[in-house]
Amino acid sequence: MSDKEYKNRITVKEEEIDLVKLFSLIGNVFTDFFNFLGKIIKGIFHYLILFLIFIRQHILKLVIAIVLGAIVGTFVDKLSAKKYSYDMIIQPNYNSIDQIFELQEYYNTLIMNADTLALAKEFKISKSAAAKLYSFSLTPHESEKEQILAFNAFLQKTDSLVHKHFTFQDFKGFGTSKYDSEFYIYRVESYSYKLTSLEEPVIADIEKNKYLQRRKRIQLQNLKLDSIATVESIVELDSLRSLYKKVTLLEVENQKSTTSTSTYIDFSKDDTQNNNDIKFFEVSKSLKNDLIEIELQKETSENIVNVITSFSPTGKNRYSFYSSKAFQISILFGGLVLIITLLIAINNYLIQYRKA
């Protein structure tokens, strides 16, 4: 055997030994990891069993506390006056949402101060009905369709680089400001099952604002001028189109008379005419679409606040099992008994540990 072959065999054996050591180390790492994971699971299971044993030892106390809490809560629910809600969906215009929020806070302040006289005068209702008012609230009303439209409007105002890293789910999760929604739910809560509609006084209070009235007047005037200008543009375009057709027909007639003895026909002018007709049609269609959009804006801009749905004549009871006092007090009593029992058990354990 040559020295070269002998050295090669030694090298191969060393590589085999290194691989064995490597796989052994990897195996030890996985073994340690799974042993550690197993200890954690065993520890969690052990403490879970201890907790279940503790619950079993004191289950009677917990059941008595929960039942007693449910009885007390049911009694409280019977004595408590039920609240009813009245909803109105509105569409604020001219950035009137700030004014609406301010008036809503003003109404809530009157309710907190129990100023039934001012409330009765404000809403033209009796003092007894005013005394039953509980709260006023305003929340954005956004459907999936409205969120998609808002996202599209957001994309049009932002850079294309933002579009790659900001999806609809990101936009939906981020949410919009309470001042940015198109529609809102205006909710009135009262202890009265039937309440005189507050729609007229609420809307009248908002529309009394002189700044909003001025903005409305200017907006409607601008829309009116835009509508007149667009109609005039459509009329002028139709006249121009009609004149162009007449000129084109005269040119064709002249061309026919001058080329009657020739076999050559020029198609270039026909192509130009077709292109011009298409352009006229596109401009006319665009102007008509603009006019439709202006008319739609005029329709939705007639009022400072558009009422989509009015208050219902009877209130809705928002009562649910989880919001009931029976559920809440039973959970409270059960939680208190559980905490007290745990503290007693910990105290006994510390006493035994100290003696040991």
Describe this structure in words.
The chain is an alpha+beta fold. It folds into 3 domains: 3-77 and 326-355; 81-213 and 309-318, no CATH class; 217-253 and 267-304. The chain has helices at 3-57, 59-79, 97-112, 116-123, 127-131, 144-157, 160-165, 168-174, 199-207, 210-258, 268-300, 325-355; strands at 84-92, 133-140, 184-190, 305-309, 316-317. Helix 2 packs antiparallel against helix 12 (325-355). The protein is flat, with a radius of gyration of 40 Å.
Low-confidence stretches: none
- How many domain regions? 3
Order of helices and strands: HHEHHHEHHHEHHHEEH
Radius of gyration: 40 Å
Distance between the termini: 75 Å
Helix content: over 70%
What is the tally of beta strands? Answer: 5
Overall residue-averaged pLDDT value? 79
- Counting H and I runs of at least 4 residues, what is the number of helices? 12
Name the structural class. alpha+beta
Strand content: 5-15%
Give the overall form.
Answer: flat
Major sheet description: 5 strands, antiparallel
Provide key terms for this protein:
flat; 356 residues; five-stranded antiparallel sheet
